[in-house]
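Whether sequence alone determines local backbone shape is best considered at the level of individual chains. For completeness, the protein is quoted in full, as a sequence line and a line of structure tokens:
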Amino acid sequence: MFIKLNLGVSKLKKVKKVIIGLFIIFFFSFFSHNATSATTIGDTTFPADVGKTYTWELTHPSDAKGAKFTFTSESIEKGVHNTIDALIVYCTMRVYNPSLGWSTSVDNELYIAANQTQNYLAFENYIGGPVVIPTPINLTLVAEAFGVYNYSIIDNTIISNYPDGISEEFTFNTKGFLTIVLSKDDGIILSRAVLDTGGDDAIPFGNYFLIFMVISVIALVYLKKQKIK
């Protein structure tokens, strides 16, 4: 009886060690993945993962629905731009027209150079406007660097007011992704594009979390059975 009890305790200890080990592996895998998914210089981080494609879809007007454009970060490196140490980001941007198919507007070209610590931001190649910006977001710096006409800022939205009642609104989330862009004429929406995939504010636990949870539940059930015995 004494021997059997010791064997049970030994098994319990082994299972507990396995659970702790799995947690440590999960913890470091998750955070190392997210730590390397963005490059930082000073207090400036570019949020788009290299190789990941982010998509915006035109939802208005109705006859343009289905049109979309994409942004793919090709590389993020530390370099020098106009004598300023900065994050140098190359990107590819593509446009989809339901009638004409896909076309590439920016092909692995310099998109942005940024060092917000030095109050420096330069946009080079893009379509439509700034779709991904450095974090922490500084919309005044973005508007000035992009040359937005007669702009104002409300919360996380840059509003550009042109003559004759035309305006554009660029709204960003806290991660630095454009979530919606509107064109208006005297307050009436002419066009609307919204972020369709990627760039959300959620913490991307994804499959790591699910795998860890399944293993943990199985281990806990086993522990409980061993205690009952």
Summary: Helices lie at 2-35, 139-146, 206-228. The first strand starts at residue 39 and ends at 41. The chain has a mean pLDDT of 80.
